[in-house]
Amino acid sequence: MITGSFPTTRLRRNRRDAWTRRMVAETALSADHLIWPVFIRDGSGDPTSVNSMPGVVRVGLDRLAAHVEDAVKLGIPAIALFPATPAELKNPEGSEALNPENLICQSARLLKREFPELGLIGDVALDPYTDHGHDGVLRDGYVANDESVAVLERQAIIQAEAGIDIIAPSDMMDGRIGGIRAALDAEGLIHTKIMSYAAKYASCFYGPFREALGSQGALKGDKKTYQMNPANSDEALREVAMDIEEGADMVMVKPGMPYLDIVRRVHDAFRVPVFAYQVSGEYAMLATAMELGLLDRERGILETLIGFRRAGASGVLTYFAVEAARLLKSG
């Protein structure tokens, strides 16, 4: 039975031809919307594989520039650096985070010499440096908020002085954005941006990332006392509002795909740059399904990324970034 304006209105007409589909597409995806997370390790030689993340590697400083070169050529605007700190340098206080010669700082100086226009994002948290695996300092088994913030402020300064363009606090301590902004400004680092992990959930999807950093099994307890409850949505808006007020230039939702509703709510409520992190567990699920032939690899990569953009993300941190940029370049 014909109803409404059919057959006068046929929505399929605009879907008939590829050029029409492109012309009326509501959402765009390009290399400009991609950020590539890169794991750096101590030592030299060939990159080492991350077993739980097919195709992802840890790279030493001697191979870092070559590793990043394709991303630069493909027009990816920024990479995010994550250090696989050697176990012997980890301690309860995470003191290696404050070493101006740590892996992130050395990497930043190297990459700024090789690729001055490449944006560098530095992870600011203590979990890559502590032997207990938490994002701050422990006092009587509890992560001490204000004491941790004081360390994060110094960590941010050290990274910015080394050449990091965007400080990305991933710890979820209360008040750390305001503290870091004030600390950076006091050192004259007024142009250093802050991308706040504003809505970071205590998620099960981070497991492969912890293997990549060599901290798998080191975490004592869990992070539920400072990262968000996956059941909460309104709380995310309060977190984002506080971070913007404290000086965040852009905000992030993490994980990504299970929290696209949060991305949309943040976008609609604040109209600020909001990024999403397609985290290691998401990547591992997709990459494994693709390897088994259960998902079309090219279509799967691009469909998930356009989903982030459609939800309102200004950009996506994804381990697929270089592959996606190649696909987009090839048309």
Automatic annotation (TrEMBL):
Keywords: Heme biosynthesis, Lyase, Porphyrin biosynthesis. Pathway: Porphyrin-containing compound metabolism; protoporphyrin-IX biosynthesis; coproporphyrinogen-III from 5-aminolevulinate: step 1/4. GO terms for molecular function: porphobilinogen synthase activity. The keyword Metal-binding does not apply. It catalyses: 2 5-aminolevulinate = porphobilinogen + 2 H2O + H(+). Its EC number is 4.2.1.24. The keyword Lyase applies. It comes from the Bacteria. Belongs to the ALAD family. NCBIfam families: PRK09283.1. Homooctamer. This is Delta-aminolevulinic acid dehydratase. It comes from Acidiphilium iwatense.
